[in-house]
Design brief:
Blueprint: E1 4-15, E2 21-32, E3 36-40, H1 47-54, E4 62-67, E5 70-71, H2 77-87, E6 88-91, H3 103-114, H4 119-132, H5 148-160, E7 166-170, H6 178-195, E8 198-202, H7 206-210, E9 214-219, E10 222-223
Parallel strand pairs: 3-8, 3-9, 6-7, 7-8
Antiparallel strand pairs: 1-2, 1-4, 4-5, 9-10
Helix pairs in contact: 3-4, 3-5, 4-5, 5-6
Length: 224
């Protein structure tokens, strides 16, 4: 049986502002190790809301979420923060790099926060991730001195620093031109197929979604 990295079990979600409104209805699926999965659907269909729940940022929902076969229900915020830092890597539409730090330091930050390894070991791992993505030559550069496409690759290296069980992306190519979007797609594909990395990517880009291993499509808060 394949290693299940993430499982959504009958997840439903309501918003209460200004009236009670159901945004997600009975969402269930599994993602196994090494799968490259996309989530698509029209604007307002619940994609980002679902990602917020799956990333443990939103705990107000019905149903259950299992990460690495462990339920996230009833966990305290400190426990969830540890799960996020240890088991989930994040890549957003905007890279959120810290301009005052070098590329290398930006990649190291989640590792320093997790505090599982020495600073020297984290620096070594960060250089390995930059090499994997072909941007090790940028290590000493300030984050604000590199191009948009390079910044997104640095953000992917940062997401990988703690060797997460799953990398989650929220429109990670949404802010890139066609060439850089293609580079990012190829990186994700390589991570899944060569390094057995699990990926869950929310995207509006139908062409991107078609080329992932599997697509989860939402419509009006339901799986179709």
């Amino acid at each position: 049986m394949a290693d299940c990295i993430l499982e959504a079990k009958n997840i439903s979600k309501y918003f209460y502002d200004p009236v009670k409104f159901k945004v997600l209805t009975d969402i269930s699926f599994r993602i196994n190790r090494g799968e490259f999965v996309s989530v698509t659907g029209k604007s307002g269909c619940g994609k980002s809301t679902l990602l917020y729940i799956l990333s443990t940022m939103d705990t107000d929902y019905d149903g259950d979420l299992l990460i690495d076969n462990e339920s996230m229900r009833g966990k305290k915020e400190a426990q969830l923060a540890r799960v996020r830092n240890e088991k989930i890597g994040f890549v957003f539409q905007f890279h959120y790099l810290l301009n005052e730090f070098s590329v290398l330091k930006n990649v190291m930050l989640p590792g320093l926060k997790l505090n599982k390894f020495t600073a020297g070991e984290i620096e070594h791992k960060a250089m390995e991730k930059l090499q994997m993505l072909g941007i090790e030559h940028l290590a000493a550069k300030q984050a604000n001195r590199i191009s948009g496409g390079e910044k997104q690759r640095v953000a992917i290296a940062r997401a990988m620093i703690n060797d997460p069980h799953i990398i989650m992306g929220d429109e990670p190519t949404g802010n890139l031109d066609i060439k850089n979007a293609e580079i990012v797609f190829d990186i994700f594909k390589q991570l899944a197929e060569e390094f057995d990395q699990t990926l869950l990517i929310v995207t509006h880009d139908i062409d991107f979604a078609k080329r992932t291993h599997r697509t989860i499509e939402l419509e009006d808060g339901k799986l179709i």
